[in-house]
Design goal:
signal, Glutaredoxin, 2 domains, 40% helix, 258 residues, Thioredoxin domain-containing protein, 10 helices, 20% strand, alpha/beta
Amino acid sequence: MKIITHIAIALACLLTLPSISFAQADANATLQQAQQAGQFTFIVFYKDNSPQTQKMLQIVQQSLTGQSEHATLTTASLATAQGQALAEQFQVSRAPMPMTVAVAPNGAITGLFPRQVAKANIDAAIVPPVMMQCMKELQDQKLVFVCLTKSEQAAVPAGVRALQLDPMFKDRMSLIGLNVEDTSEARLMQQLKVDADLIQGPYVALIAPPGVLVGHFSATSTADQIAAAIHKAGKCCDDPNCKHAGNAQASQSNSTRR
């Protein structure tokens, strides 16, 4: 009896789903318009109009209710050339479907949800400005130096400035300011493991792709010390045969065994 009840509820949900014409959705146009308007775009990729696809679409729609100023929804069919091209752009063409991809106004991917999604996922994918900027730079394979401050003006440690002159790092560095008293960025602060009380002068938290916290550096940190930390983490370059990358992997392996 319970199974029949659950089926009836599921059917009722599908019947009450707002009607959307999958074939007419222009995901590219919606994405461009949303980015120009400073909105997040949630793209539901699908192969067919199955109950699983309908359920995902319904959850995303309901989760975005009341968020029209901040986010919009569109769909993309992998059965069309346009949908396939967009899926390849976001590297999800071979991922399990349906798939919801959250794209920030600056182009950063803030969420990937295959097969199923929940309201909590949608809420978490709408990230604040500094976190969004960090995610974009990391996805562009940059070393992100988050310059922490308690004012509107972020100071950069001399060691970081000196590192910008190093040919190995100068083109891969991104400096982003973060006011530690900005409560909207609390999630980023937590991920950076920053104690706001320690911020008394120039201070940075360094994160490397895909989101590795390399360390914290103050006004007394030298360029050599920062470079050594990057080498130790195996994030000095993109060469998989780099001796530093090998050392980092060995260190992680030993740590796991311990």
